[in-house]
Specification:
By secondary structure, the protein is an alpha+beta fold. The chain is built from ten helices and 19 strands.
Length: about 350
């Protein structure tokens, strides 16, 4: 590649980054801003953008900013499609029926303890006309240390629990309400109904949640969380009433975060999940062998990154590059027992 081509490529990247208002955003993270800007330009205001048109319009810009001459168009389009889904989960974009997308309403998310704000919504960063160092990019998320005075009166402020869909009630109170509000109906399982029961009280704390299920409830009497596998492999979760080990009543759990319920049962059974800190390079990784509830995953993604090793697919390794104290408090609220940090990090 000639010097002229290299210089032209660098100039093009610099120009595009400046136009998009990317500031400190990494090359990999720039695809999220590309998708925000593309959907906004096609769909706003009062319209909508089809996914095929969005991907086709965004592809040339991503080809420039990714700076990977050998990457295929199919690979790059796949990365952009993944960015759309990530932005939907973050609350920046909304997917409509038929493959159409629209920007979500822009708002600020206030983080607890006065540690800053998230800027959420489909408005492109370049339109905000903020200084490049005011927005700190973390994947699809945009952080601000304080509310910009020129935007404070224009955009609403939402709290972290509302944005991440965390329940207002503490874990055990939330679980108690789930049990009390779901009425079990008389139920007599057939021989084809093979249930597994979640029995954390019989498991050691270091045992991951996926190993806390058993087909044998013993002579238990009371209400348990149960699951069974339906046709085509889908799992169905229920609350079941048992009398001396036999199911006598059941109800399905619709729109309930079963994973959160498992954490509540872990805590009630005096067998909380444990997380172990590992020192990796100059950072601390928190190692889990159980999945986190969806709301916590959404919130923690704004503060850190999740890695799942290819050779250990049951592991979840979280690294928090910012607001680690807030992230650890959220984990403790699930009853998770956090191990001591590596010796060189202790104070």
């Amino acid at each position: 590649m000639s010097v002229e081509v290299i210089r032209a490529t660098k100039d093009a990247i610099s120009t595009v980054r400046r136009t998009l208002g990317l500031g400190s955003c990494s090359a990999a993270g720039s695809r999220f801003e590309i998708m925000r800007a593309t959907v906004w330009s096609i769909a706003a205001p009062g319209s909508k953008a089809h996914v095929n048109r969005v991907l086709s319009a965004a592809l040339p810009t991503w080809q420039i900013l990714s700076d990977r001459a050998t990457a295929s168009e199919e690979t790059l389009r796949g990365e952009l499609r993944g960015a759309l889904s990530t932005l939907e989960d973050a609350g920046d974009l909304i997917e409509l029926r038929g493959g159409y997308w629209v920007p979500a309403t822009a708002r600020f998310i206030e983080l607890p303890g006065g540690v800053g704000y998230l800027l959420v919504g489909g408005v492109p960063s370049a339109l905000l006309q903020l200084d490049s160092d005011e927005i700190q990019f973390h994947g699809p998320h945009r952080h601000l240390a304080k509310l910009p005075s020129e935007l404070a009166s224009l955009l609403p402020v939402e709290d972290l629990k509302s944005w991440s869909r965390l329940p207002e009630a503490p874990l055990q109170d939330w679980a108690r309400e789930v049990f009390e509000s779901h009425e079990r109906q008389p139920y007599a399982p057939t021989s084809a109904d093979v249930f597994e029961f979640y029995l954390p009280a019989k498991a050691r704390p270091e045992i991951p949640q996926f190993k806390r299920w058993s087909e044998d409830a013993g002579n238990a009497t009371g209400t348990l969380l149960a699951r069974r596998r339906r046709v085509y492999g889908a799992r169905e979760y229920r609350l079941v009433d048992l009398r001396v080990g036999r199911i006598v009543g059941a109800c399905e759990l619709h729109d309930i975060d079963v994973r959160r319920l498992m954490y509540a049962l872990d805590l009630a059974g005096n067998s909380p999940v444990r997380a172990r800190p590992l020192r990796v390079a100059d950072q601390t990784q928190w190692l889990f062998t159980s999945e986190l509830p969806r709301a916590e995953q959404r919130a923690l993604a704004a503060f850190g990154t999740l890695a799942i090793p290819d050779d250990r697919p049951y592991e979840r390794r979280w690294t928090f590059s910012r607001n680690e104290g807030l992230a650890l408090d959220m984990l403790r609220s699930l009853g998770i027992a956090l191990g001591q940090p590596p010796r060189e990090e202790r104070r």
